Structures are given as structure tokens and as C-alpha cells.
Amino acid sequence: MTNEPWHALATDKLLAGLGSSRAEGLTEEEAAKRLASKGRNVLKEDKGKSFFGEMLEELTEPMIVLLLVVGVLYSLSGELTDAITIFLVIAALVFVETYNDLKAGSTIRSLRTLARATVLARRAGRFRDVDSEELVPGDIIVLEAGRRVPADARVLESFGLTVDESLLTGESAPVVKEASDALEQNTPLAERKNMVFTGCLVTQGKGLACVVETGSNTELGKIAALAKGVKPPRTPLQLAMRDLTKWMVFVALGFSIALPTLAYLINGQPPQTMLLTALSLAFATIPEELPIIITMVLALGGYRLSKQRAIVKKLKAVETLGTVTVVATDKTGTLTENRMTLASAKPEVMTEEMLRIGVLCSDAVVADIGAVGEPAEVALLDAARAKGIDPDALRRSNPLVSEFAFDGRKKLMSTVHRHDDSIFAAVKGAPESVLARSSAVRDENGYRPLTQEDRAEWNSVATKLAAEGYRLIAFAEKRLSTVPNQRDEAESELTLVGIIAFLDPPREGAKEAIATIERAGVRTIMVTGDHPQTAVKIAALLGLDHEASTMTDKELAGLTDGQLQEAVKSRRVFARIDPEQKLRIVEALHADGERVAVTGDGVNDAPALAAADIGVAMGATGSDVARETADIVLADDDFGTIAKAIAEGRRLFANLSKGVKYYLACKVAIIASFLIALLARAPLPFAPIQIIMLELFMDLGASAAFVAERPEADIMNTPPRDPKRAFLDRGTATSIFVASAGLTAAVTAAYLLTWYASSDLARSQTVAILTWLVGHFFLALNMRTDREPLLKLGIVTNPTMLIWGAGALLFAAAAIALPFLHGPLRTTYISGNDAILAIGLAFIGTFWHEVRKWIMYKG
After folding, report:
1. What does the pLDDT look like over 398-423, one tens digit per residue?
2. Which residues are known catalytic residues?
3. CA 593 to CA 613: how far, in whole Å?
4. Packing angle between helix 236-267 and helix 290-307, nearest 10 degrees?
């Protein structure tokens, strides 16, 4: 290749230099070689900190610094064994936190790779879907409206192609792209009309282009190299937890200072020991892990949702899922299979002319895996091929000269073609739209004017077929003298050719999914651009309300915002709805206090997706704009996945709530046990090093074990959570204090009974440690469910909880049985009776929750 810029090369010279051609593209072997040498078509991303970099950051965390101070003070006071123990604890904490942070970060990054786009590329003369990351210079690609440009490319063919380049140039108006041969070398970026650039949006038309640069060598890649990444904004729940943490820090610090001070003043405890106790209590009781726990739960929850084929793009969606009250869903491909078959036609015998228009007025192409594109268009291509029509040959003999993409309001698409010396338009769309613009009809006798009787007959056929659940597309044509500049020139005074009915049956499981979320208090409404009768038929098959609850676009257009707000309370089916009306429906639902999830797949659905509490884009058939605007992408376009996502969202919030309640209950219990011992004029129940070790197990239990908890059986039989309700409301606060009361009672009873019986501090503190470790494990088991008894749920259904619990119990056993741990941990041997006392009190102090659940359980 020369050093000339891509836009300044002659087309033939550019293709020759890249070793490619319009008709063949690259071979798979050559593409693989270039991929190996050029690298994947991705921008360089921040791969996150290294293990040691993350570890260094953890060492600067305030709580770890506090613990380091404790270790240093132990060293200065001559307690080298305690100091070494604390430094080992610091190493363990930093290692665990580093591992968890890296794992959460890796999970978040992996989510970004799950919704990678594909693009139609010509390889060895055949179009096929190629992962956009595998594009290489020389690939011949198809550009389509609603898709992002996957790489910098030179335009080879343009059919009404316009691109929004505001991402690069700041120019708000879309730019018309042409297949001009060459431009001046010094042409500014914004004026390179024969080039398209990575990340820019194709707003209209379609085209063919040759990839010239990929990855970091693209214009966008050069800009990205100069920019630093920004962190995503915190979710509302993360912000709420941050505020809660700040408030609790003051409470924890207050008790951490007050309790040791009172112990010194009342009981005459040594000042040095009380200073270490205050620092250790601060370390144990300040809830610094709450934001970390939430980030971990949301990230791992998002990853779990991806396994359900729901790819989370924004973390806020994970917490919002459990609050949804209405799902406004599209019909085609979401509630139905999006698998079209030609089922009926008018005329009864499908004519070659109908199929010819269907092939020409289509964005579908024949690839090596078969026809690829919108399902109805794919069905038309398949039917044409079955009739002996070669789509590629037909398009070559009728080359495209202009195109007017599908308009959601007009419900029409048209293409303009040249055949020898003539020009004609091929038009398809909704039957009522095509009929309204037709003045003639073509039948077995040739062309003739379209009479009122004809219109009535065609409308009757369309209504009948739609009532039977078919999707209808009408076809028309128009002879032209020149290439039209406006779509109305191509789409008026049409000659009607025929109507084809397509069958798109309801998805398997869709009816059950609707019933599931209805039981969960989530209402489903269908918002579709399809014919009202078709929508009603599918709604009936899916168990939605009958025809009386249906509203059409014309009815909706006549309503004020207030009237629409009343209508959305009862209507379940909205048909022939355009994107602007879909947005109005979402706004009306919001005005009525609903929390809305919206599904969409097109460029024009973006406003409704953005306005929704959760925007859900179709991953298989959706446009890039829809996918980028949405919070969640359905990889399989299946409504059943929405139901699974709602259940998963509820599970995540329930687990998070349980984990936080348990975590805070343990914090309250350790403070309360100190306060009771102080009031009883006994020594404090735990030595500073023991406090630190207990904190290690509390953190692990709160941040890991509850994340893996399975949902309770009735999770989809309860109303949605109100997002306006404070996380730490009266019910949650009561639950925290009730849970902590049992653990506090067990620990203080075991400690005080053995202290008053023997005045042996090592013995009583060892019994307190055993009671605490066993009790807080039992408490975790009990708090796994709010309503369902543990035996109904199954004790072994959460292996993470059991592994953590086994670790806590093994530590307790080692602290008692192993002499070399007695000194560092301030423990000693205890009798079997003491062990029975500790375990028995721990059981009584926690498992009374199960008795309450059995009494109230209604399952």
C-alpha cells in the first residue's frame, strides 16, 4: 500500500492493495492470518489492576491502616506474639479482599463481552455473520440502518446511506455517504463522504463497505487512546448504603471509644489494653464493607442473569428488577417465536410478482448459513428460492438505486430499482397503509383501477386473516420516470399486487411466564405495531385480556395525557402503536405510579427504552441503538427470560437484604455483649486480638455466603418491593435488633456464667468465643430465610454457607485444642460441659427464629 490516506485512493487501487474484492471479499484463511497479525477489532481497554496493585490499594484502606496501628502498638508494648498474629491477620484480610475485588471486577468486565455485535461480512463470495471483533482490513461488510459502524471502512455502495458522526466530529446532522472514487488528501474528517468510522450510527439506508482499519488504529481508537476511562455512576442502593455507612461510622466510633473508657473508669482496666480494645472495636464495628458487599452482590448477580440469557449493561438494573410493576412488551419475537412461515395469500395462488417485490424490497441477504435478516423477509427469500427465483440474480438484474427505510409511523418500506431503461419502486407494509396509497390493482387480467368494492374486499380478507393470528404484509409497485427524492413520490399512486399472511406462533413458555409474573404482582401489557386483530389473537392465546381491552393507535391519538393515564390502568393490548405513542404509554404508566420495564428492538424504540425504569433490548434482532440505550439485553429475545430476570432481581435484593441484616446484627451483638459485661462489672468478654479474629469471620459470612442463597419458594408470589421504602426501615431495623438480641444473650450468658463460677478470664473468654462462632453460624443459617422454615428450604442448598460455617467451627476447635494458639489468641482448654453450655446457648439464642417461622409458615 502507498502512504496515501484511505479516502484519497481510487476504489480499485484500495481493494487491490487490501487484497480484496467486492464480489468475493476475503477467504477465511486470509481473514484468520490477518486477525493473527493485526489483532482483534477492539479498543485497548483497562484490564484492571494487577494482583499486587490491588493488594497495595487494599493496604491503604482506612480499616487496614487502623489494624496496622494496632499491630504496631502491640509491637511497641512488647507483645510480639500478638503483633505477629495481627500482621498475619492483615495479610489474610488483604489477600481475601484483593481476591474478591479482582473477581468482582473480572465479572463486570466479562459482562461487557457477552453482547458483542455481529456484522454481515462477505467471505469467499458468501455473506455470513461475523463477530465484529474478528473483522480485519479487507473485509467487505454490510451497513444497515440502526447499526453502529463496526470498523473504519471505505464506502463501495450507498443506497440512501446517512451516518450520525457526532461521536467523532460533533456535527449533529447525519452525513450523507457516497461511493465516490477518491477525495483530496487534505479533506477534513467531517467531509470524508466516502468513509464511515467505527462507532458512528447508520441512521438511514444501507450500503456496502470495505474495512480499512480496525481496533486502536481507527479514528475512534486514536481518540480513545488519549482519554481516560471513567467509572460508572453508583446505583441508588449503593448511594443509600454509603449514606448508611457514614451514619453508622459515628455510632460505631462512639461505642468503640465509650465502652473501653467506661471499662477503665468503672472496672479499672489497664489503659494500654483499653486503647487496643478501642482500636479493635472500631475495626470490628465500623461497617466499611457494606458498599463492597453491594458491589459484589450486584456484579455477581449480573453475571448470574447473563446465564439466564439476560445480559446486564447497567448495574442499576439488577436492583431495579425487583421493583417492576408493569412490563410493556413487544409481540413479535418476544411473545412469539419470530419464526415466520408463509401461510396464506391473496390472490390465493402466490404470484411470482409478489415474491419478486418481497425479495427486492428487503434487507435480508443469502448467507452461507441460509437467509439472514428480519424473519418475514427471510421467509420471503426462502419462498422465492423454493419457487426457483435466485435472489442475488434478481437483485443484480434490478440494481438498487435508492431506498426509503421502514417508517414506523407510515408502516411502509420502499426500494427504487433500475431495470434496463426503466425505473420502478417496490413497496411493502401494513395492508391498510398500502391500500390507502394504492389507486390500481394487478391481478390475473393485468392492471386496472382499484374500486371501492375492491378496497372493501381486500380489507375484509386482511381483517379475517389478522383475526386468525397472522401477520400481514401487503405488496405494491409503481412505475417511475425518474429516481424520486422524497419517499411520498415512491409511495403514492401505487399498484396493489397482493397480501401475504405469515404465521408467527406464540413462544413456548410465554403463557406460563406471563402467568408467573402476574402472580408476582407484575402486569403485562402488549404494545405492538401489528394489526389489532393479530394482537388480540396472540393475546388470547397467551392469556391476556380479551378484545375489549385493546386500544389502537387512532384511539390513543385522540386521548389527552390524563385520559391515557386512566386507560393504561385497564387496557392490556395496544396495537398499531408507533414509537412516539409507545413513549406516551410509558409516561402515562409512570404518572400512574407504576415502575415499568419496556422491551424494544428498533432505533425508534430508544426513547421508550430510555424513559423506562428498565429498558430491555432484543439481542438477536435488535438494533445497536436499542441495545446501547437499554439496561438489559435479552440474548434470546424471549419473554420467558424477562420473567426469569425479575425472579433473579428479587432474589438478589432479598439475599442482599438478608446479608446486610445479618452483618449489622453481628455488629450490634458484639457491642451489646461488651455493654452488658460492663454493666455487670465483669471484664470485657473478648481480648483485642479475639475481636479482630471474630471480625474476619463476620465479614466472610456477610459478603460471601448470602450471595449464593437460593430464593424462597414464595418469592414470585409476593408484591414488588417499593423502591421508595428506605432500606433500613422499621421492619429491617427490628429484624436486626431481634436477631442480635438472641446472639447477644447467648454469648453474654455463657461468658458471665463461667466468669462468675471461676473468675478465670481465659476460660470465660474462650467459652464466649466458642459461643460466638457457633452462634453466629447458627444465626446465619436462620437468617437464610425470612418466611420459609430452614428444613423446607434445605440446609445443604447453600454449600458456600456450609463451607464458611465449617471454617468458623474448625477455627473455634483449633483455638481450644491446639496449645500453640492459646498464647496468640488468649484462649485455653475448656471442659466438655463448657462446650455443651456454649453450643446449647448458641442454639437456643438463634433457633427460636425457626419456631416462629414454622408457626407462621403457610406453604
Report:
1. 999 988 888 777 889 999 999 988 99
2. 330
3. 12
4. 140
